[in-house]
TrEMBL record:
<dbReference type="InterPro" id="IPR051721">
    <property type="entry name" value="Biopterin_syn/organic_redct"/>
</dbReference>
<dbReference type="InterPro" id="IPR020904">
    <property type="entry name" value="Sc_DH/Rdtase_CS"/>
</dbReference>
<keyword id="KW-0560">Oxidoreductase</keyword>
<protein>
    <submittedName>
        <fullName>(S)-benzoin forming benzil reductase</fullName>
        <ecNumber>1.1.1.320</ecNumber>
    </submittedName>
</protein>
<keyword id="KW-0521">NADP</keyword>
<keyword id="KW-0963">Cytoplasm</keyword>
<dbReference type="InterPro" id="IPR036291">
    <property type="entry name" value="NAD(P)-bd_dom_sf"/>
</dbReference>
<dbReference type="Pfam" id="PF00106">
    <property type="entry name" value="adh_short"/>
</dbReference>
<dbReference type="InterPro" id="IPR002347">
    <property type="entry name" value="SDR_fam"/>
</dbReference>
<comment type="similarity">
    <text>Belongs to the short-chain dehydrogenases/reductases (SDR) family.</text>
</comment>
<dbReference type="GO" id="GO:0016491">
    <property type="term" value="F:oxidoreductase activity"/>
</dbReference>
Length: 249
């Protein structure tokens, strides 16, 4: 039996990846604040299971409680492979650095950096203890390599996850566990709505993002999710690589 744990599985790319895993015969555990009833239907249609694990990734107690629930039913004798998709992320607050308060700063770092690091660390340990291979994907962004006005926290957190991916991959060379980062490009998701709602004073490039929507240039989340699934299913997946969807479209 194979299981995929996906953060932010209720919508956007997370929901698309969850659906595609279920269609591939892989059971899914979704970690998010809200549920997505359609995923239960996809699971039933494909004779798989979808489990919803309520979790607020900005709260460490919520994350630890979710991990305990996952440990109890994921690590069974029938488990042969585990996927961890660190998909959830926050792009807001979008503003000049001097305008970002402590609470907003800490929440964005917690969701974008601390939570995926902790989850990866946790399931690396548990997978090793249970002699199961773990394949981890961290959703990153082109913003990790290119600074954007108003995105000081988002760019920094994504850059840190790229380096985390490369570093952990070095450590796992002898274990069989693999970790990659995946840059999905611009998709038609709720995150893009948040970006387009920014003021130009907070985000100088906002008009270019609005133009992407107006000109139908945003990629479909199901299509991008399919690329990620193909990468993860490839026997030649490269440990520590930062995969860019542009290489495949």
């Amino acid at each position: 039996m194979e299981i995929a744990i996906i953060t932010g599985a209720s919508k956007g790319l997370g929901a698309s990846v969850a659906k595609l895993f279920l269609e591939s015969g892989i059971h899914v555990a979704g970690m998010s604040r809200t549920d997505n009833n359609k995923l239960y239907d996809y699971a039933k249609e494909n004779n798989t299971h979808y489990d919803f694990i309520p979790c607020d990734l900005s709260d460490k107690d919520s994350i630890q409680a979710a991990c305990k629930k996952l440990d109890d039913f994921v690590f069974q004798d029938t488990l042969s492979k585990l996927y961890l998709i660190n998909n959830a992320g926050l792009v807001d607050p979008i503003d000049r650095a001097e305008n970002i308060d402590m609470d907003s700063l800490m929440k964005q770092i917690q969701v974008n950096t601390t939570a995926p690091m902790f989850l990866t660390n946790h399931f690396l340990r548990k997978a090793t203890e249970n002699n199961v291979q773990l394949l981890t994907a961290i959703v990153t962004s082109g913003a990790a390599e290119k600074p954007k006005y108003g995105w000081s926290v988002y760019c920094s957190t994504k850059a840190s996850m790229n380096m985390y991916t490369k570093t952990v991959a070095i450590e796992q060379k002898e274990t069989g566990h693999k970790i990659i980062a995946f840059s999905p490009g611009v998709m038609d998701t709720g995150m893009q709505e948040t970006i387009r709602s920014s003021s130009q004073g907070a985000f100088k490039d906002v008009e270019s993002f609005r133009a992407l929507k107006e000109n139908n240039q945003l990629k479909d989340a199901d299509m991008i999710g399919g690329v990620l699934i193909d990468i993860l299913m490839d026997d030649n997946i490269e440990n520590g690589k930062i995969y860019d969807v542009k290489e495949y479209l």
